[in-house]
Amino acid sequence: MSAVKRLSMELDGWQAAWKQLEAFLDRMDGVADQDAPHVQTVCALLPVFNVIERARRRAVGIALAPALSAAPRGEGLPAVSVGALVGTEGRLPGVEELEFAAGTIGTDSDGKLTGAALLAGTVTLFAFRDEKHGGEVAVRVPTYDFGPLSASGTVEDAIDAGLFTTDQRKEAAESGIAELGTWTGLRSERRAELKTTAETVSLSSVLDGLSVTSASSAFDPVASGAATRQSECLADRDVLLQAKATVEEQGATPELTDALQRAADSLQASATDYGAVATALQPPRTVIASVPGLASLKTTLRRADSPGIPGQLSNELTTLDIEAGKGMDAAVEARLAYPDGPLRMLRTLEWSLRFHWVFRQRWFEARNRIALAPLMRQVLQPFCDSLTRVLAGQSTGIPLVGTVLLVKDTPTQATALSVTPTVDLGRVQAGHIAQVGGDRPTLALVLGWEVKGAEKRLRIAPLNVSIATDAKLPGVAGLVRSGSPVNGNAVSLSTQELLDGHAAVGPQADGTVQEIITLGAKLNLLLGQGGGALGLVPPAVAAPYPGQTFNLLPPVDVGATRLFLDGMPVASTSGSSQPVQMARPGELLLVRGADEEGTWWQGVAQVDTVDVRTGAAARADDEVTTTPTPLCCEDDEEVVVITLRDLQLPKALVRDVTLRRDFKGFGGPSLATGVMLPIELDPGTANITVQDGGVTKTVLRDPELRAATTVLKSWLGVPT
């Protein structure tokens, strides 16, 4: 079996392996999407209950402590330790209680259930760097809503004091039906455990204990307390309005959204009352010298503390407490539904991925080392060697013995050469280069051979035959005639011809020069300039303006057929003693820039022609091309116009667009799967970043990779 065939089969295996892992990740995303409305609701309502508890403290002087900070998947939250999850009796139940209910229950040395909750620490497995995920997106498991857990640990007695006790778990395992506790029930239990002390009095009670005969300094705590509570009420009002907007998006009941609005209005009124008290108690505090004035102030503060019945929550906050409790209970029940609530399923999948990933990563590393990379080198080495020989003026290395002729007229872009039937093709390999003579000479990149009846054919990359039509030129434009020789004879090419992209003997031989330029660019695309992860170094083909990056006039639209340089290249930096264009027909160049959303892309353009034209002349072609001339090109201003054979970009590039030759190449795993794999699976594929407004952004190379895999598959004879 040929190396090309074995490599094709190996690529099939790699694509299947990645698709398995991708299906796993897609399943996780699907479950996370099912959980999303419920986790949004939970994380939006927890701050609402914090607001209610603060109002309770203002009214009666006692309340549960705020719940742990929470955000969907812990986005933006710092890491926490297991210790932060312990000792929850005096605070609102938070998202940690859902984790205890969905998590593993501990056992002792005899295997008996202990009631302790076991939670796995959060680990980062890898980061995406592809088009589908929009760049650097880290995959962390588990994705706790209270933030990453710094290390695995045990929370003692958490199970039986929570939402899914040991007895409930046993019953669920035996009957298949689970009865879980409710979030509001757990909160009520904790409220019942709160103890009042001499300090747990409302601010209005402090003021009630003062009179006109009290020292002025005795009113200081009331003044500062009222100012603090005014700010607190205003901040809490904003919390409720934000929660309203969030739960509305998740389809909350009108009763809940209405209760949130009414409670927010009530807090605004309380803030006004607290502000009045704080202002009245500013020096010189004349109000405290008047019995009626002080009595009025006491009434205002009692109303601020308890807008309804003294010592109780306002009607608005009481109603909110009820409606928000219903919403929270429904969201918690949906997430914890036994046995397939989305939170339970997500944790199961995350645990599975955590272990599956370790073995998959080892498979990728080992398989790349022992099979993929050696096969890639074996198959691509002849491409590099043949081009190296051509550039050195040596025979191309294709093993053709005797006189071999074309037996059919062959047009440009043909993918087969019918040759003398008696020739022995047994030692011809993919990557060999054949010289095709005649009036329109060129080079053919051989990809294999085949026998069709009595006909022997060399399978080739699309043939590049000069299409110059000047009547004085020999031969037929775009055609190699039957009887033309096919051999491995040396080709004589100068550096100047490579810089020009044209043959010195005349346009009829341009195919030879341009095929070398195209092959060199394709090897750079796959392997990178100077080589890369595969350990192959493509031969350097002389190019004009070496090492330079060219700015393009934006926008560069999807499917653009023309590019416009921003400014004229300085001729003295071209690397040539004669004027040359900045690119050659058939050459591949990289196009990089940012789209309107600020995402950076890198694609590949194949050049057709390069011309220097005036703005007026360029605009005259607008009617026959899909890419209009930029408005900034004045009629008498010269501009470099690059006409393209192909450009693949998923989004229009609107700023910082450049044309470049700094190919980095790709590692074997990404080429094999056709996916910009995480760097943990393919460290040989470079991660390119740019600084954009002080922010480091990943350049998405997916379009470039698609171009590279198209080249590789075409060379292997695999459908693209």
Compute the number of structural domains.
4
Strands, total number: 20
Give a quick account of the main beta sheet: strands, pairing sense, barrel closure.
Answer: 8 strands, mixed
Using only CA atoms, what is the Rg? Answer: 37 Å
Give the low-confidence spans: none
Strand content: 15-25%
- Percent helix among the residues? 25-40%
Shape: elongated
Quote the average pLDDT: 93
Helices and strands: which structural class? alpha+beta
If helices are DSSP runs of H or I spanning 4 or more residues, what is the number of helices? 15
Separation of the first and last Cα atoms = 22 Å
Sum this structure up briefly:
By secondary structure, the chain is of the alpha+beta class. It contains 15 helices and 20 strands.
Account of the protein in words:
- With about 725 residues, the chain is an alpha+beta fold.
- The protein folds into 4 domains: about 5-105 and about 120-195 and about 335-350, no CATH class; about 205-325, no CATH class; about 375-525, no CATH class; about 550-715, no CATH class.
- About 40% of the residues lie in helices and about 15% in strands.
- The protein has 15 helices and 20 strands.
- Strands 13, 14, 15, 16, 17, 18, 19 and 20 form an 8-stranded mixed β-sheet that branches. A 5-stranded antiparallel β-sheet has the order 7-10-9-8-12. A 3-stranded antiparallel β-sheet has the order 1-2-5.
- Helix 1 (about 5-60) crosses helix 6 and helix 1 packs antiparallel against helix 9 (about 315-335).
- The radius of gyration is 37 Å and the shape is elongated.
- The two termini are about 20 Å apart.
